[in-house]
Amino acid sequence: MKLHLQSTTKLANGVEMPWFGLGVFKVEEGEDLSAAIKAAIKHGYRSIDTAAIYGNESGVGQAIREALEENGLAREELFVTSKVWNQDQGYEETLAAFDTSLSKLGLDVLDLYLIHWPVAGKYKDTWRALEKLYKDGRVRAIGVSNFHVHHLQDLLATAEIKPMVDQVEFHPYLAQNDLLAFTKEHGIQLEAWSPLMQGELLNQPVLQEIAASHGKSVAQVILRWDLQKGVVTIPKSIKEHRIIENASIFDFELSREDMERIDALNQDRRVGPDPDNFDF
């Protein structure tokens, strides 16, 4: 089946999650944020990813409401993700943080709620809170972010409901091979943040060569690689032309040789913190 911009992957609980979405990492509230979300939805995006720590949930919610009205869409047609921040982890704390996020977003139900980072000694209690929110029908899917294999193993040992998503840094220099294999084995959907390595990969010679052979940009090649690896991806942009370009990846396919050449670029190199050594 050929994918398109609104194609979805079925999570372990049957919820359909778009393969492609817009990330709004630390985009300040205001015209840029509103314009980016409206442009994305106008051009066919159906997934918006934010987090409490980004400080923009209210602006995201307002832009979503306006965009849905402008485009004649129902709320159910959009998949909205947010995350609980580290200082808000713990059982009661997480329940309160969720209420705050939902209120700021102006939503009755969230589509996906994630533990933002694996805070030692807290993430299991935080997960119990997410399980409650899920059972209460206040969120359609729950998951984690920045969890290594050992974090997932530790959580799965006691979890009543297994995470449906693990959102991590993922790009050709950080291919996360062990984690990708583990999540596939356990029915957990891997999702990429910073798929373009904050622009660092755009001048990479191998990627430039592959891009030229397809008449595509390096960014489009990387995002296509994500999809062909079975990884949901949410590139961030506030420029309408880039939002359109990033999503123009459904009219070509990388060959097996292309994929192998990109896979070979892996250096296990991060642009963000290592979850095992993050100063919480």
UniProtKB/TrEMBL annotation:
Highest taxon of source: Bacteria
Site (Lowers pKa of active site Tyr): K83
Entry keyword Repeat: no
Alphabetical list of CDD domains matching this protein: AKR_AKR5G1-3 (cd19157)
Keywords, ordered alphabetically: NADP, Oxidoreductase
Binding positions (substrate): H116
GO MF entries: oxidoreductase activity, acting on the CH-OH group of donors, NAD or NADP as acceptor
Active site: Y54
The keyword Oxidoreductase appears for this protein: yes
Domain NADP-dependent oxidoreductase residue range list: 31-266
InterPro entries: AKR (IPR020471), AKR5G (IPR044500), Aldo/ket_reductase_CS (IPR018170), NAD(P)_OxRdtase_dom_sf (IPR036812), NADP_OxRdtase_dom (IPR023210)
Pfam families: Aldo_ket_red (PF00248)
PANTHER family given in the database record: 2,5-DIKETO-D-GLUCONIC ACID REDUCTASE, NADP-DEPENDENT OXIDOREDUCTASE DOMAIN-CONTAINING PROTEIN
Membership in a protein family: Belongs to the aldo/keto reductase family.
Name listed for the protein in its UniProt record: Oxidoreductase YtbE
Species in which this protein is naturally found: Paenibacillus albilobatus
Source taxonomy: Bacteria, Bacillati, Bacillota, Bacilli, Bacillales
